[in-house]
TrEMBL record:
<dbReference type="Pfam" id="PF00725">
    <property type="entry name" value="3HCDH"/>
</dbReference>
<keyword id="KW-0560">Oxidoreductase</keyword>
<dbReference type="InterPro" id="IPR006176">
    <property type="entry name" value="3-OHacyl-CoA_DH_NAD-bd"/>
</dbReference>
<dbReference type="InterPro" id="IPR013328">
    <property type="entry name" value="6PGD_dom2"/>
</dbReference>
<dbReference type="GO" id="GO:0006631">
    <property type="term" value="P:fatty acid metabolic process"/>
</dbReference>
<protein>
    <submittedName>
        <fullName>3-hydroxyacyl-CoA dehydrogenase</fullName>
        <ecNumber>1.1.1.157</ecNumber>
    </submittedName>
</protein>
<dbReference type="GO" id="GO:0008691">
    <property type="term" value="F:3-hydroxybutyryl-CoA dehydrogenase activity"/>
</dbReference>
<feature type="domain" description="3-hydroxyacyl-CoA dehydrogenase NAD binding">
    <location>
        <begin position="7"/>
        <end position="184"/>
    </location>
</feature>
<comment type="similarity">
    <text>Belongs to the 3-hydroxyacyl-CoA dehydrogenase family.</text>
</comment>
<dbReference type="InterPro" id="IPR036291">
    <property type="entry name" value="NAD(P)-bd_dom_sf"/>
</dbReference>
<dbReference type="InterPro" id="IPR008927">
    <property type="entry name" value="6-PGluconate_DH-like_C_sf"/>
</dbReference>
<feature type="site" description="Important for catalytic activity">
    <location>
        <position position="141"/>
    </location>
</feature>
<dbReference type="InterPro" id="IPR006180">
    <property type="entry name" value="3-OHacyl-CoA_DH_CS"/>
</dbReference>
<dbReference type="InterPro" id="IPR006108">
    <property type="entry name" value="3HC_DH_C"/>
</dbReference>
<dbReference type="GO" id="GO:0070403">
    <property type="term" value="F:NAD+ binding"/>
</dbReference>
<dbReference type="Pfam" id="PF02737">
    <property type="entry name" value="3HCDH_N"/>
</dbReference>
<feature type="domain" description="3-hydroxyacyl-CoA dehydrogenase C-terminal">
    <location>
        <begin position="187"/>
        <end position="283"/>
    </location>
</feature>
Length: 284
């Protein structure tokens, strides 16, 4: 596999724009692909704002921020990813959506190009099987906010080759991140352990054990978590939390992973957390 210089990022949502941001800031050319212009505009605006945040904190010069932004080319055409050396998929957490994307990418990208997924819990082995190159499919799981969090969980599917793993590990290091190797299992390590914590915090609220504020205080003050579990669930998105709990329940088959009924009701109500203005807390 030749050196990675140009990276395709599919999806400009919360995770996708953060991933494009860190690649561009580290000197890679980025093709950022979305399905609608307004999503592309919103993602690009977020990158501009977050680069500006780094400039105002003195972590980046204005010149470097401008250069990073100039390295990102937006597109609505998946075919434009054909000249990328590696593609990271960061689309909606729906198996059917990802199946279509991996089938398309397998057609579009030349043989040998690595197809990475930022999926938070969907099986890498399953995604790889939608392609004719399972050896070159891998999980590259970033954490929100991507420009800040140091971890990349690198997930090996059953067929992922050592060369693919080595390339993605080295690439994560070039981004200033720390790659941690994990095998493919529902929720990997991060969400297998994190989500049941958030889900249990929701049960505590539902059962009237404590208010959301009190639950969060326990974790912020007692365990030094930067955000309490309910603020974090709102930050991640309650719909995303519910999707992940369902993947854990189905994939691991243990009823301890059942999603909290309050979480299900809130998602039904359209209370998705911070992005919708309301979750366990309210947002401007
Ligand atoms: N882009 C760039 N920089 C950002 C940023 C962004 N989007 N968001 C925050 N920052 C920077 C700030 O500029 C600030 O920089 P400084 O240290 O130089 O001053 C620093 O991050 C801290 O931000 P703030 O001072 O604004 O706010 P806080 O101190 O409250 O920190 C936080 C915010 C970093 C989000 C912190 O609350 C935190 O670490 N929360 C936990 C986040 C977490 O657990 N994420 C993982 C979620 S799970 C996941 O993503 C996996 C998925 O599969 C579900």
């Amino acid at each position: 596999m030749s050196e990675v210089k140009r990276v395709g990022v599919l999806g400009a949502g919360t995770m996708g724009n953060g991933i494009a941001h860190v690649f561009a800031r580290s000197g890679f050319d980025v093709r950022l692909c979305e399905v609608e212009q307004r999503f592309l505009d919103r993602g690009t605006e977020t990158i501009r704002k977050n680069l500006g945040r780094e400039v105002s904190k003195g972590k980046l010069s204005q010149q470097d921020a401008d250069a990073a932004l100039a390295r990102i080319a937006g597109t609505l055409d998946r075919g434009a990813l054909a000249d990328c050396d590696l593609i990271v998929e960061a689309a909606t957490e729906r198996l059917e959506v990802k199946r279509q994307i991996f089938e398309d990418l397998d057609r579009i990208a030349p043989a040998g190009v690595i197809l990475a997924s930022n999926t938070s819990s969907i099986s890498i082995t399953k995604l790889a099987a939608f392609t004719g190159r399972p050896e070159q499919v891998i999980g590259m799981h970033f954490f929100n906010p991507v420009p800040v969090m140091k971890l990349v969980e690198v997930i090996r599917g059953l067929a992922t080759s050592q060369a693919t793993f080595d390339t993605v590990k080295a690439l994560s290091e070039k981004l200033g991140k720390t790659p941690v190797e994990v095998n493919d299992a529902a929720g990997f390590v991060s969400n297998r352990v994190l989500m049941p914590l958030l889900n249990e915090a929701m049960y505590a609220v539902m059962e009237g054990v404590a208010t959301p504020e009190a639950v969060d205080q326990v974790f912020q003050l007692g365990m030094a978590h930067p955000m309490g579990p309910l603020t974090l669930a709102d930050f991640i998105g309650l719909d995303v939390c519910l999707d992940i709990m369902r993947v854990l329940l189905e994939g691991l088959g243990d009823p301890k992973y059942r999603p909290c009924p309050l979480l299900i009701r809130m998602v039904d109500a359209g209370w998705m957390g911070r992005k919708s203005g309301r979750g366990f807390f309210r947002y401007e």
